[in-house]
Amino acid sequence: MRKLLLMLFLYVPVFAVAQNKAVDSLRKVLATAKADTTRSDLYYKLALETQRMDPDGAQKMIEQAMTLAQKSNFQKGIANVYSFKSIQSSYKGEMDMMKKYSEKCIEVARKANYQLGIAKGQNGLGLFYWQTGNFSEAIKNHLSALAIREKFKDTVGIATSLGNLALVYFDNQNSDEAERNAVQSIELAKKINKVNIVISNLQLLANVYGQGGRFEKALACDAEALALCKQHNDMRGLSQVYSNMANCYTAMKQYDKGLKYQLEVLKIDEFFGDKKNISDTYMNISAVYAEQKQFKPALDWMQKGLKYAQESKYKQGEKQGWGALSSIYEQLGDYKNALAAHRKYQSMSVDLINEKSNQQIALMQTTFDTEKKEQKINLLNKENTIQKLSLIKQETTIAIIIGLLIVALVVAGLVYNRNKLKQKAQLQAQMLQHQDMLTKAVIDAEEHERKRIGADLHDGVGQLFSAVKMNLNGLFERINLQRDEDRFLAENTLALVDESCKEVRVISHQMMPNTILRSGIASDLKKFIEKINADTLKIKLETTGFKDQLESNVETMLYRIIQETINNVIKHAQATQLDIVLKRNVNEITAVIKDNGVGFDTAKANSFTGIGLKNIQARIQYLKGTIQYNSAPGRGTTVTVNVPA
């Protein structure tokens, strides 16, 4: 197992730890500072500067920062202190406290509208979820932090968030993405002279290369990081470098060197009291002994490492520990304990599998199916209860008034049937109402997700494309392109970027109907159609009766139905002409969408399994409307939609 030191500097805005000039400069400013808010911020920065070499001194400074921040109601300062406390909790292996302080940081920062503080808290949560094995939540939080930092052009934050993402990808067995993010982080960190970011990412690359058997490249990264650590007195970084070197030498079967460097790592880890890192080092020492077939000392070191991993709730380390422990027991001939340890390893491996979006969908479907089955069971129970009551009533009536049986049975039968029909109608109404609620919830969730994805495209990818376009323009203006083929390539590149910007903007607008539907469905359908290439498909739109806007949900769903139908025409119909007639009267709204495309066999319509058609049908059912398809091969298609006004 390789040691991966937390890149917790991602969490904070200052990183030149242990540079005496930086510490001296901050102390000089602190000596003359008067305002409590300024002094709080300076103590916070001093704590950051010293926490990688003097944890006790850093603790005293952060306590001063919190006291001054609370005294002056300096919310930004309070949020910063919570972010620092999260760092400390992680070093100590106190995962629950790490999560708590990260959430407190976000809470305070949101109230103060301190966006970069929110990013710090999200990074803290990302690190928490990474260490506890929930990779999907880790990536989600790191990407959210990265988006904020890009928005505010926080170069240091961008570099460090890329490094954090590299960590998660590495542990999730995605070495290519880990290497790509780490290289980008190093390049950016070198430009802004952030040494700690460079050190941590060099060590991540050393892990990537070492895991792939590229030991020369791994040791080259170690050598570069080692020089930086010694130059800047970075003890935590030095621990990481020695750990990587030890693992490389062990893999190269140079066991004496491997053990030597692992024991150096242990000294540094014990100095800082980092349970998580001590756990890693114990397990790494165990691996050196196991490689030499010395299984008894290997067992002793591995058991100690596993204990620390469990205490610090370091799930990745615990999983690897159980796997290694199983192998050691097997070599010692203790097959009972080997099997038990392997089962633990398998169980944790399943628990730590990264979630996929299709798993989330499956979970939603399972929940829906379970609720549906529960409704059926409840319905059957009620019907059984009614039948039992009916039998008791009949037997009692026969026993008491046998002579009036015919009259009583007729009257009781009428009453019973009436009540039963009434109850059945009520149950059906409740089921329909519940189905409407479920349909609305699904549609609302879909619209919310469309809006989120649209916003992400617009604010994230769209802005990145715009920045790329601006940078390329500036670059081509400064470069004198002599050859015609070079100028042609440059112009084509700019055109492609410009076309990509437009495409992202169109998609993001299509994904956000609540933003688009401002002028009413008729006007906004016209705007949507205008964005479609008329050279490929000519569309004619005719609308009547839409002076007043519809209710919001009705308008959004109807817009989506027509939009999805148009998209189906574009994708499948091979049509050149599309006519749309949208009418509204007192009782209903009618939409007729007619194309001159290839058509299809309507007898096979029920066999179509496309998501788009299912979405259309769900919206039609919710609106209590109908949809009809009139088509035949080679004769085009007419779609008629009717919904109550």
Describe the 3D structure.
- Helix 2 runs parallel beside helix 4 (75-91).
- This protein is mostly helical.
- Strands 1-2-3-5-4 form a five-stranded mixed β-sheet, with helices on one face.
- Strand 2 and strand 3 (588-595) form a beta hairpin.
- 38% of the residues are buried.
- It is built from 24 helices and five strands.
- It has four domains: 8-273, Tetratricopeptide repeat domain (Serine Threonine Protein Phosphatase 5, Tetratricopeptide repeat), CATH 1.25.40.10; 275-353, Tetratricopeptide repeat domain (Serine Threonine Protein Phosphatase 5, Tetratricopeptide repeat, Alpha Horseshoe); 356-516, no CATH class; 518-644, 2-Layer Sandwich (Heat Shock Protein 90), CATH 3.30.565.10.
- The chain has helices at residues 20-32, 36-50, 55-71, 75-91, 95-111, 115-131, 135-151, 155-171, 175-191, 195-211, 215-232, 235-251, 255-272, 275-291, 295-311, 315-331, 335-351, 357-400, 405-478, 484-510, 513-516, 521-530, 552-573, 611-622, and strands at residues 538-544, 577-584, 588-595, 626-631, 637-644.
- The chain is extended, with a radius of gyration of 33 Å.
